[in-house]
Amino acid sequence: MASYANVLEGKVAIITGASSGIGRSTARALADAGANVVLVGRDTTRLDTLRDELNGQAITVPVDVTAVGASISIVDAAIAEYGRIDIVFANAGLFLQGKVAEADEDSIRRTVDVNVTAAVSLIRTALPLLLEQNSGDILLTSSIAGHQELASEPVYSASKHAARAFAQALRRQLAGTGVRVAEVAPGIVLTDLWGYPEGDDRVAERLEAGTGIRAEDVADAILYMLTRPAHVTIRDLVILPTSQSI
Fold first, then answer.
1. pLDDT the model gives residue 196
2. Which pLDDT value is given to residue 2?
3. pLDDT 10s digits, 127-186
4. Ranges of residues in the chain whose predicted pLDDT is under 50
5. Scanning 10, 138, 201, 243, which has its CA 20 to 30 A from the CA of 176?
6. What residues pair up with 16 in beta bridges, in sequence order?
């Protein structure tokens, strides 16, 4: 991973889905770069462990991002602790695959609520603060499934297409304001979502075969996006394992 020591010194980043996978790795990467991080997720124990690991550079907001008022609670916590927000990373996500005719309606609603509605709500709540300071970064986690229509996961693919479309429409709406908007679209990331908990011995084999990437690889790409000069926007970043054919 490239060295970004202190490049985000003084910045404040909200990260949803911070208790595992891409969110956790990105929290570590941003803290290493000097940022203060607002860790959002449902797993209080994991959030507390990560907060302690980050040595005073983080606070936790244990909340379900789909709950009524969750976005306000997250933004209020960030402002109360740090007085500002510079980065909003709407990363919390659910994966749903299978035949639509056999899908559970509650699972469909939950997937869309987490992947789309909660992300839009958090961004809407934080946006006036970013506009007031004429700077900031908004980043959404989409997926390769948001760039291609995958028959194995139509609901998930639809939700990620929506996240990508929202990011691009918002980016155009905010052009010239100093607030950048982008989406990162990973392929197969070897995280809990794919049945690979942190430290799993099988990860090395998948990496060698080029059939998966690490959450740390995505975090490094995100840090690159966030540290470009103010006149540069990385609009979309698709990051795939070398052997992924889509």
1. 85
2. 54
3. 999 999 999 999 999 999 999 999 999 999 999 999 999 999 999 999 999 999 999 999
4. 1
5. 10
6. 40
CA distances 221 to 185, 199, 216, 243, Å, are 10, 21, 9, 19
Q: In terms of C-beta density within 10 A (0-12 exposed, 13-18 middle, 19 or more buried), how is residue 174 classed?
A: middle
Task: Give the CA dihedral 20, 22, 24, 30, nearest 10 degrees.
Answer: -170
Q: Which of 4, 156, 196, 224 is catalytic?
A: 156
Question: How distant, in Å, are the alpha carbons of 100, 104, 131, 182, 244 from that of 215?
Answer: 29, 29, 30, 18, 16
Show the tokens assigned to 190.
Answer: 């070897």
> Is 224 marked active-site?
no
Give me the domains of the chain, ranges plus CATH numbers.
12-188+214-239 (3.40.50.720)
pLDDT at 195: 83
The number of C-alpha atoms within 13 Å of 176 and in the hemisphere containing its C-beta is 1
pTM for the model: 0.95
Nearest residue to 76 via CA among 24, 129, 33:
129
Query: Of 35, 145, 164, whose CA–CA distance to 87 is shortest?
Result: 35
Please tell me the distance from the alpha carbon of residue 228 to that of residue 117, in angstroms, as a whole number: 28
Helix 154-173, helix 118-133: angle, nearest 10: 20
Residue 237 parent element (H or E): strand 236-239
User: What is the model's pLDDT at position 3?
Assistant: 63
Are 112 and 155 in contact by the 8 Å Cβ rule? The answer is yes
